[in-house]
Amino acid sequence: MDGEINGEELRALLDEDEARVVDIRSPNAFERGHIPGSENVPFPSLVDEVERFEDEERVVTVCPKGKSSVQAARLIASYEGFDGRVDSFAPGLTGWEGALESSDGDERAADEGPEAPF
């Protein structure tokens, strides 16, 4: 893992299309709302899916509060085929100041939703 980034840094990466943003929450939580442009790879599936990121130059992991995403970033960084930069979004989804996109395409304000491990 290379480090942690804040909201301004993540927004800049998204605006420039310079990072692949991986939301590690459950599919249901992701459907309720996620950072626009992010993709869902639930943490329990990450070990089996990590090779999908081997050609990426930059990956940012996202979770509700910025804790589990550190573990996910470390997992991706430790993958033998991955040579890019990987960061965790430090404040987590609850610290995202922009609108969230739902799976139905609507944007809404950030909502923690019910407590969940991811």
From TrEMBL:
Renumbered residue ranges of the record's region Disordered: 96-118
Domain Rhodanese: 15-102
A Pfam family that the UniProt record links to this protein: Rhodanese
CDD domains given in the database record: RHOD (cd00158)
Gene3D superfamilies, per database record: Rhodanese-like domain (3.40.250.10)
PANTHER family for this protein: FAD-DEPENDENT OXIDOREDUCTASE (PTHR43031), PYRIDINE NUCLEOTIDE-DISULPHIDE OXIDOREDUCTASE (PTHR43031:SF1)
Protein name per its UniProtKB record: Rhodanese-like domain-containing protein
